[in-house]
Amino acid sequence: MIYKIFRGAEWDEARAADRFAGSPVDLQDGFIHFSTAAQAAETAARHFAGVSGLVLAEIDPDRLGAPLIWEPSRGGALFPHLYGALPLSAVVRTWILPLDPDGRHRLPAGLR
Whole-prediction pTM value? Predict the structure, then answer.
């Protein structure tokens, strides 16, 4: 499985359209950024520190309609990138990410 962190408004828009074309950063880079389970906590801390109302989506890569490419990023680690829109039919589960008192997101067990 792979993971995508959405701002609340992005998730609402994606649900209304039944697909997600990308966040502003995704659109700028030309692909949708995802994380593995091991990368999700660092992604939340690095790109969403202190932001409330986030939604974490678990995605089944076998349900994607466009190419998923694993490319190096952060120190050479491979990250999954989707070159196309994310169909919401690929989302198998979601969580709201609450903030701890220190401003860090509390991820579900297994993703910390």
Answer: 0.91
